[in-house]
User: What shape does this take?
Amino acid sequence: MSASSVPVLTIDGPSGSGKGTISRRVAEQLGWRLLDSGALYRAVGYAAGAEGLDLSDAEAITRCAQTTKIRFQAVTDGSDTRVLVNGHDATDELRTETAGAAASAIASIPSVRQALVDMQLAFRKGPGLVADGRDMGTVIFPDAPYKVFLTASAAERAKRRYKQLKEKGLSVTLATLQREIEARDTRDASRTVAPLKPAADAVFIDTTGMGIDDVVAKVLAVVRP
Ligand code: DC
Assistant: This one.
């Protein structure tokens, strides 16, 4: 099967729209591979931090994106896939708000995005791929036959994130989270390269007030009507 004949379902949307959970569940149900593209940006931000680089130094961060070794390691006990950054298991560090903010900052550098393109395209292997991100349907897999754009109100996304972080024992306030989410949305939507916006041919799903099972069913229906 040539790469371009492998079906891709792109799931784009802002942070906290439920993309991560929904993408994982949908990939499991379809028996397809999963690309968590946000983890790549988080990994580069993390590696840059570990090297003490200035996140606004485009040249240094681009070099870092080109050389950082990122590996996803599936686990058999049903828990999260581990993400190895230059050989170090950074899964837990990558999920923090600090890593998210660093990822958002470096993601606005065009040459950093370019450095991650081939790595993302390489995930397109049979029997199919679920690609989770911001620009999956618009930039990375514009020819994908199935495209979804998930969203939810900022208040609801902040509440979901708050619950997740509390469960992990991290201390945050709801108001701070909502402010951070709104700031990140603005940055992701207003950057000049690959801004967060739905592909013209994406199915738009507002998940505010919806349960995970209902969203999964709606997304699956896009692939198997
Ligand atoms: O989905 P996430 O929260 O893990 O993504 C972290 C940041 O990475 C997000 O603020 C924007 C950036 N990102 C991106 O620019 N393009 C992608 N395809 C995925 C993530």
Remarks:
- The mean pLDDT is 93.
- The beta strands are 8-12, 33-36, 70-73, 82-85, 88-89, 129-133, 146-151, 203-206.
- The chain has one domain: 3-223.
